[in-house]
Specification:
The structure is a single chain. The chain has 257 residues and is of the alpha/beta class. It has helices at residues 194-199, 204-219, 224-234, 239-249; strands at residues 2-3, 8-9, 14-15, 20-21, 26-27, 31-33, 38-39, 44-45, 49-51, 56-57, 62-65, 78-81, 86-87, 92-94, 103-106, 111-112, 117-118, 123-124, 129-130, 135-136, 141-142, 147-148, 153-154, 159-160, 165-166, 171-172, 180-183, 188-192. Helices cover 17% and strands 27% of the residues. Helix 2 packs antiparallel against helix 3 (224-234). It has four helices and 28 strands. The strands form three sheets. It has an eleven-stranded mixed beta sheet. Strands 2-5-8-11-14-17-20-23-26 form a nine-stranded parallel beta sheet, with no helix packed on it. An eight-stranded parallel beta sheet has the order 3-6-9-12-15-18-21-24, with no helix packed on it. A hairpin with a 4-residue loop joins strand 27 (180-183) and strand 28 (188-192).
Length: 257
């Protein structure tokens, strides 16, 4: 391992042989770090944290700190990070709580920009972007390839759908449907994230079906339950639309419109 002599690593931590640790970083007991991960200077990685392979963690990040939750009393809960993530300066990732399932998870291939905060019991998928100072309160689910803009605040227990784009300084208090563009305080829908979908390889037919479903669900004037039924009748056998409908059906907080 390429470990700077000023770094402090607990003997109980398990680091792959090629992990790099910069000056003055601290790694506690019950930490596992996979191959190829690079940890810069002044990073703190607290106990019960598992980090996969190929990650890069920049200086002054706080990884696996205890939750900012008054109900937490020192129980053993975890933070699990996947592979090939970039975690930038001053990012804070807290571990889970017993009442929230005991796990905070960050998937793979994510970009977490400077000053972003991921609170306890958040479950983040793959290919997600959290821009500077994006703030996720507890118990939030972020699906794959969602983009959360700078200075966005997301309420507890909210879900953010895949391939959506949330504009900067948005206040999110309800679930954000997949594939959509949202912004504002409070968040409002502004159409489909067409540019993002094209960048992710969606063809014109897929985008057309998503647009058609969006118009029926959110712009037809129908009650949401009626709109869902109409979409099911008019756009059958489309996995993207099926995911959108399932997301709406499973919403507990309500859906941004």
């Amino acid at each position: 391992m390429n470990v700077h002599p000023t770094a402090i690593i607990h003997p109980g931590a398990k680091l792959a042989s090629d992990v790099s640790v910069g000056p003055y970083s601290v790694i506690e007991d019950n930490v596992e770090i996979g191959a190829g991960t690079v940890i810069a200077s002044h990073v703190v990685i607290r106990q019960y944290t598992t980090i996969g392979c190929g990650n890069r963690i920049f200086q002054f990040a706080s990884i696996g700190e205890i939750p900012q939750d008054l109900k937490f009393h020192g129980e053993e809960t975890r933070l699990v990070i996947g592979d090939n993530n970039q975690i930038r300066e001053y990012v804070t990732l807290n571990r889970g709580t017993e009442g929230g399932g005991g796990l905070t998870r960050l998937g793979s291939d994510n970009l977490v920009m400077a000053y972003a905060h991921v609170a306890h019991d958040c479950l983040i998928g793959d290919g997600v972007v959290l821009a500077n100072a994006a703030t996720l309160a507890g118990h939030i689910v972020v699906e794959d390839h969602a983009s959360v803009g700078g200075l966005v605040g997301v309420h507890q227990f909210t879900r953010i759908g895949k391939f959506c784009f949330i504009g900067g300084m948005t206040a999110v208090v309800l679930d954000i449907p997949p594939f959509t563009l949202v912004s504002g305080n409070r968040a409002k829908l502004h159409g489909i994230n067409v540019t993002g979908l094209k960048r992710q390889g969606f063809d014109e037919n897929r985008i057309r079906d998503i647009k058609s479903a969006y118009r029926i669900l959110f712009r037809s004037g129908l009650r949401l339950e009626e709109a869902v039924q109409k979409v099911m009748q008019e756009i059958p056998d489309c996995s993207d639309v099926d995911h959108l409908l399932k997301f709406i059906e499973e919403s507990k907080r309500g859906v941004t419109r």
